[in-house]
Design goal:
The protein has 8 helices and 4 strands. The longest helix has 29 residues. α1 runs antiparallel to α6. It is flat, with a radius of gyration of 18 Å. The two termini are about 25 Å apart. About 55% of the residues lie in helices and about 5% in strands. The chain has a 4-stranded mixed beta sheet with strand order 2-1-3-4, covered by helices on one side. By secondary structure, it is of the alpha+beta class.
Length: about 210
């Protein structure tokens, strides 16, 4: 099968993982291009094609270009409707979008904020324990909501894996490396059972 296009991204990046996972489950091939951050994305060729100069970015075989991980992954999934990655109808597809936005904005945003705080991406004097605690509490609220929704379900929307499951699991993997230690993970058994279930279908991309 000919590739549907080229992807520029870091194999360790969660967005790259979920794009390639969606392509693999859909039976599609995407060429992951060599990429060196701060070098590749500053070349005239790259900037002319992708002026925002960030990753991930995608170019289809027909010249169609996209940026933003979720948009690229959704486009890839839409090329193989029989895969079920967008569910089984417009309502399922809307739920896929709902969970993707939820994962990105109600869980991962807080992971990124906390990571930036503890890794001193803000000036040291700007660190606030109260802000750190507030952000963590907002993430906990979202994780409890996700845990409840997975209480009686193997997957979020249908009986099979969808793009929503893949994106949520990628967000949880990153959170487990930043904000969710062993004690915190024990509070969300459904979330981490779901993560392992998705991992089994997305192997080996997620071990990076």
């Amino acid at each position: 099968m000919a590739p549907i296009g080229s992807l520029w991204g870091d194999a360790r990046q969660r967005q790259t993982k979920y794009i390639l996972s969606a392509a693999a489950i859909a039976g599609l091939e995407v060429d992951l291009q060599p990429f060196e951050f701060g070098v590749t994305n500053k070349t005239p060729e790259f900037v002319n094609k992708f002026p925002h100069a960030k990753i991930p970015t995608f170019e289809g075989e027909d010249g169609f270009t996209l940026l933003e991980g979720a948009s690229i992954a959704r486009y890839v999934a839409s090329l193989a409707p029989e895969s079920g990655l967008l569910g089984n109808g417009i309502k399922d597809a809307a739920l896929v979008d709902q969970w993707i936005h939820f994962a990105e904005h109600e869980i991962n945003t807080f992971t990124d904020f906390i990571w930036q705080l503890v890794e001193r991406f803000v000036p040291e004097k700007a660190y606030s324990e109260n802000i750190h605690k507030l952000i963590a509490e907002r993430q906990v609220r979202s994780l409890k909501f996700l845990e409840q929704n997975l209480n009686l379900r193997k997957f979020l929307i249908t009986d099979e894996i969808t793009l929503a499951d893949i994106v949520v699991a990628s967000v949880i993997q990153r959170a487990a490396r930043v904000t969710l230690g062993a004690a915190e993970r024990a509070l969300y058994p459904n979330v981490f059972e779901h993560y392992e279930r998705v991992l089994c279908q997305s192997w080996p991309l997620w071990r990076i």
